Amino acid sequence: MADPKGFMTTPREDWPRRPVEERVRDWDEVYVPGALLPIINKQADRCMDCGIPFCHEACPLGNLIPEWNDLVARADWRAASDRLHATNNFPEFTGRLCPAPCEAGCVLAINQPAVTIKNVECAIADRAWEEGFTPPRPPERLSGKTVAVIGSGPTGLAAAQQLTRAGHTVAVYERDDRIGGLMRYGIPEFKMEKRHLERRIEQMRTEGTRFRTSTTVGRDIGAAELRARYDAVVIATGATAWRELPVPGRDLAGIHQAMEYLPLANRVCEGDLETSPLSAAGKHVVIVGGGDTGADCLGTAVREGAASVTQLDIYAQPGTERDEEADPWPTYPKLYRLSAAHEEARHLRSAPAADADARLFAASTLRFTGDAAGHVRSLHLVGVDAGRRPLPGTERALPVDLVLLALGFSGPDRHDGLVDQLGLELQPPGTIARDADFATNVPGVFAAGDAARGQSLIVWAIAEGRAVAAAVDRRLSDGTTRLPAPIGPFDRPMRA
């Protein structure tokens, strides 16, 4: 450790966000450009270099956090980049999008604010690109084996990059017109500018990975035909089958899934559309669902100029301190967190019905009512207790012109025919079944990421991509592999 007393003398300081009034007028990332590097060396100095670093266990990638913290504190950015990329293909993604379970597992977090691990990671990744520490790494020789990866989200891209670097010829199939999966069309620009994604894709192209966009496997190309064409197939399509809200009035116009709404806003940022056909401009918006996708809808609606935005969360408002009985250290605690979108909504008072920010906690949707034209005009809700039971006398109605359902996902979308054409076995709640080697019941077909694990975090997605790549390489290389496998298919986050 560079400074043995750093954790005692230096307070935590996070990457500052731009003023709300400024950032809601554009789609740029919310953080102050260039404000991270001046503070990050001292923040890295706060790392205690623990004998047993629980941040390792909290991160499924097994990131070597104390090592690159020490290197950043000493301003050895090249070595820090090497250590970071040794376990993570895309740290510029995780440094912006991951909720940082590693910080929850930080030993310092037992009684102090955790080390700003996520900020340090992002600083290393950005510096690595600026200084040219991340050149393409094409394989020295080709194996003669071919692999198809279906899906270009973080799991598919990580698997493809690892397998390409191992010498296999890899083609990534993506049903959308651009590579990136939900990172492209689900994550708003203000959370991660797509230039970071484009940079990695170009690196992968240079290394030899091939990309096939606007190609739905099961429809544009038969699943069996694809299986016959390649030595191995990796299914990394994600869990895109969204959950529904079966309440009266759901069929009214103006009620949409979050993943019908967010891609259109992203296409505006890409220049495909001048305005979104589902724009929230001038509308009263209610978002049903209290997770990150709901927060993404909130920040998007605020930027589009909504008249009001309210977010419903069926859970009670959590506290600001860890509940040591329910969520003991080093597990990831359920806390009241103020995302950039919620900070914006609170500052702008975008939700008159809510108390502090845009959220109404412990609220359950009863029904929707509409006007004579069949368009939604009111959302009727009720307060609930910890068991989600309605509380008498708490029913109320919110005016609404646009409802966005952000209720999560249950498994892969089966409408394209991929699952049925291959005859893949499924497990509850509809995810693809696999064995301890990530292999499905179909020989030569592997499944990884949310399609098999279920909806999870980006760090788990990348870890799955790296691990399935090792399993595929082992099958194609007579039982041996040099690729790392950070997790197994049945590993789960630490829980109490």
- Biggest sheet architecture: 5 strands, parallel
Note the beta-strand portion: 5-15%
Structural class call reads: alpha/beta
Adjacency order of strands in the biggest sheet: 3-2-1-4-17
Rg estimate, integer Å: 23 Å
Q: What is the count of β-strands?
A: 17
As a percent range, the share of helical residues equals 25-40%
How far apart, in Å, are the first and last alpha carbons? 30 Å
Q: Quickly count the helices.
A: 19
What is the overall pLDDT average? 96
List low-pLDDT spans: none
Principal-axis shape equals globular
Description:
The chain has helices spanning 6-9, 20-23, 37-44, 54-58, 65-73, 77-85, 91-97, 101-104, 117-131, 154-165, 182-185, 195-207, 223-229, 258-270, 292-304, 340-348, 418-422, 450-453, 458-476; strands at 146-150, 169-173, 210-212, 232-235, 241-242, 255-257, 284-288, 308-313, 359-361, 363-370, 376-383, 396-399, 402-405, 409-411, 426-427, 431-432, 445-447. By secondary structure, it is of the alpha/beta class. Strand 10 and strand 11 form a beta hairpin. The chain is globular and about 65 Å long. The two termini are 30 Å apart.
